[in-house]
Specification:
Helices cover about 75% and strands about 5% of the residues. It is built from 17 helices and 4 strands. Helix 4 (about 85-105) packs across helix 13 (about 390-420), helix 7 packs parallel to helix 12 and helix 9 packs across helix 12.
């Protein structure tokens, strides 16, 4: 097999590495031609099936808006209630798999070959993987989720016809603010800690291993060579890659929808811009246009630069909240919340026999499906920037360090909001809609106009980096693993990410976005479980 880095954009392994011998050439099934001044190099049939399906989906959603919302909400409810045990059990498998790799000799394998060196510094690497993996979500849920779990826990449980109707995690904490705060934060950290990053790590490691060490194309189908062999170049591989495109696009559209909701709410609060569908459509369109500029500038000049800027701004806002807010409460809360997370982790991750069905299905099941649907996008992006790291270094940095940063972020933002409610009697934070809770928390602190505007900028730039890096990933998959396909293809996918987000918002709001994330997350969860086995087989065959 040819692994010429000049033509395919994928470096050959450095040092000892067991390359898979196959007659398949990267791009051999591609259609390469020109349409006017624009060249294209697309995989047949992955690009055609996924592209035409998404175009048709956008058209039908916009044409049947009055029925779409009801359909999407019903779909989401059925999936999360019927398959909650499967999502929870799958996520547990991913965490255990990653922790095992850290402590076994397989952790000594180096991505890119035994003598490979990292392409990026730690600072640039962390900035890119974190901005892609959690950016918009932390901004939207950093205050709103801890407050939601705190309030529901404080209110206790409620029963109707023998079933719980409250949304509190586990057994709640009726009229006990301290216990409710610890339980609410433990539940929040559970949703943003080890489990989601383990999902990302599984995809990223498997893609990086089979591309940089085994010499296969940088697409999801390559991961399954130990299972399907040469058949991955046929329809089994076509199906896997098409599922990856769908999962990536709809998972990304969900996050873009959350970002648009929050940015629009902040702009209304600060500048009086109406918070409605028209404003959100304009906002998504404008941000997609900025993302197109980032696409044109490339990985280093676009995503990497914006990611580093955004991480700097996020760190600035975090430090402001820590040192201007209730500093002592944040630092003591960090330790208390981390202990509470460890204490409640077995019960929160239990997939069967749950009484807190609204929490486990409406929150956890949706989250795991959302992370899984995001995983091809985040995983491939992390794989692209992680060559040269050992497996042990990779897992520690992708799994443990971002999880710890999430704990710090949630403790600072969520802990400050809880302190405002419990100690200061502030009701505006608790009463505000989800998309406004961050701004309500900041309004109780000095320089609120400046920090709120900074929050909007962060949401928008996270929006841009997610759209840009998402288009890069989808383009790689639909170009048969080529990482240097013609620019118009990335422009096409970047544009369609915005159109899908707009179509789903108009066709059913956030419920529609969440429904599509869950529906694509289910089949892809099966793909990831198989990927764990394939990755183990691939690592066992590598020199250490």
């Amino acid at each position: 097999m040819s692994t010429n880095s000049d033509t395919q954009g994928i470096p050959e392994p450095e040092g000892a590495s067991n390359i898979i011998e196959t007659d398949y050439e990267i791009g051999q099934d591609n259609i390469e031609s020109r349409l006017g001044p624009f060249g294209f190099d697309i995989h047949n049939p992955v690009f055609l099936i996924s592209g035409l399906s998404i175009v048709g989906f956008v058209f039908l959603t916009l044409a049947l808006q009055e029925h779409a919302g009801e359909l999407f909400n019903g779909l989401r409810g059925w999936l999360t209630s019927s398959l909650d045990w499967f999502f929870l059990a799958s996520a547990n498998v991913f965490v255990i798999f990653c922790l095992v790799l850290i402590v076994t000799p397989l952790g000594k394998v180096r991505i890119g070959g035994k003598d490979a060196t990292p392409d990026y510094s730690y600072a640039g690497w962390f900035a890119m993987l974190f901005a892609a993996g959690m950016g918009i979500g932390l901004m939207f849920f950093g205050v709103s989720e801890p407050i939601s779990h705190f309030n529901s826990s404080l209110g206790g449980t409620a029963m109707e016809n023998g079933a719980r109707t409250d949304w509190a995690p586990l057994g709640a904490a009726l009229d006990n603010p301290q216990a409710a705060a610890e339980l609410g934060m433990a539940a929040t950290i559970f949703h943003w800690g080890l489990h989601p990053w383990a999902i990302y790590a599984v995809v990223a490691l498997s893609l990086a291993l089979f591309s940089y060490n085994k010499g296969l194309p940088l697409t999801m189908r390559s991961v399954f060579y130990p299972i399907f062999g040469e058949r991955i170049w046929g329809w089994p591989g076509h199906i896997i890659d098409t599922l990856a495109v769908f999962a990536t696009l709809f998972g990304l559209a969900t996050s873009l929808g959350f970002g648009a909701e929050q940015a629009n709410a902040g702009l209304e609060l600060l500048f009086g811009i109406p918070n409605n569908d028209v404003s959100r459509v304009v906002l998504i369109s404008a941000i997609t246009a900025v993302a197109l500029i980032s696409v044109y500038r490339g990985l280093d000049g676009g995503v990497k630069l914006l990611s580093e800027i955004n991480m700097g701004l996020a760190a600035l806002l975090l430090l402001f909240v820590i040192f201007v807010g209730p500093t002592a409460a944040i630092f003591s809360g960090f330790a208390d919340y981390l202990v509470a997370y460890v204490k409640h982790l077995p019960a929160l991750s239990n997939p069967v026999g749950r009484e807190d069905v609204n929490f486990s299905q409406g929150w956890t099941s949706f989250y795991w499906a959302w992370w899984i649907s995001w995983s091809p996008f985040v995983g491939m992006f992390i794989a692209r920037v992680s060559r040269g790291r050992s497996v042990r270094e990779f897992i520690i940095c992708v799994l443990l360090i971002p999880s710890l940063v999430c704990v710090v972020w949630m403790s600072a933002f969520g802990g400050t909001a809880i302190t405002q409610i419990v100690q200061d009697g502030v009701s505006s934070v608790a009463d505000a809609p989800l998309e406004l809770k961050l701004f309500m928390m900041l309004s109780e602190m000095p320089l609120s106009a400046i920090t709120s505007f900074l929050g909007i900028i962060l949401v928008i730039v996270f929006f841009v980096t997610s759209s840009d890096s998402g288009s890069l990933v989808i383009d790689t998959i639909t170009a048969g693993g080529k990482v240097d396909a013609p620019m118009p293809q990335r422009v096409f996918w970047c544009t369609f990410e915005g159109l899908v987000a707009i179509a789903l918002l108009l066709g059913g709001g956030l419920g529609a976005l969440q429904a599509m994330a869950v529906s694509t997350g289910f089949p892809f969860a099966i793909v990831l479980l198989l990927a764990c086995y394939a990755t183990y087989k691939g690592l066992a065959d590598e020199p250490r």
